[in-house]
Design brief:
- The two termini are 28 Å apart.
- This protein has helices spanning 3-9, 23-34, 53-61, 87-104, 117-124, 153-156, and strands at residues 45-50, 72-78, 108-112, 131-139.
- It contains 6 helices and 4 strands; from the N terminus they run H-H-E-H-E-H-E-H-E-H.
- It has one domain (3-144): NADH Oxidase, CATH 3.40.109.10.
- The chain has 167 residues and is α+β, with helices and mostly antiparallel strands.
- The model has no long low-confidence stretch (mean pLDDT 97).
- It is 35% helix and 16% strand.
- The structure holds flavin mononucleotide.
- Residues 11-12, 14, 64, 110-114, 148 line the site of flavin mononucleotide.
Length: 167
Amino acid sequence: MDVLKAIEERRSIREYTGKVPSEETIRSIIEAGRLAPSAGNRQPCRFVVVWDRDKILKIAKASMKFLNKAGVVIVATANPKLDPKWYPVDTGIAVEHMVLAAQSLGLGTCWVGAFDEEEIKKILEIPKEVTVVAILGIGYPKQVPSSTSRKKLSELFFKDRWNNPYS
Ligand SMILES: Cc1cc2nc3c(=O)[nH]c(=O)nc-3n(C[C@H](O)[C@H](O)[C@H](O)COP(=O)(O)O)c2cc1C
């Protein structure tokens, strides 16, 4: 799928059919995460790909309930010591790569930032010095919601100088 089409059609999906994606499909998605750029190519992120149903249910309890129907959950972490300034940006880029890869393969995703970090770390045996940055639910969409609103281009983008709206 064309990347612009994937961007246009992507929605946060919070209702999944419950069908588990194939290993091959998830591998394509995580490969997109692996290929993401990072500051100085330091690659401070590590990702736990969670297939285990029990663990997915526990993660849903410690974050957003709708994740309990996700086919796979990816927990994106980073070690801030490896790049104190850029680790959240690097992690965000890698997660978005995976979001768009999933979209292009017919899967839906939802980025989840609301979670009990200590609980997530306990469930997945994540070491103390590692930070959980994001959780990504992945699954086949039960329904695709209509698009959410965005500010106008002219509010978000300026041309050549501050406050000169892009038209
Ligand atoms: C950093 C980040 C954190 C988010 N955290 C949550 C969350 O905890 N729970 C949730 O349901 N959606 C979460 N979302 C999804 C946003 O609510 C969603 O992207 C936004 O409302 C726009 O809708 P759309 O993704 O369908 O275009 C998060 C998105 C981002 C980028």
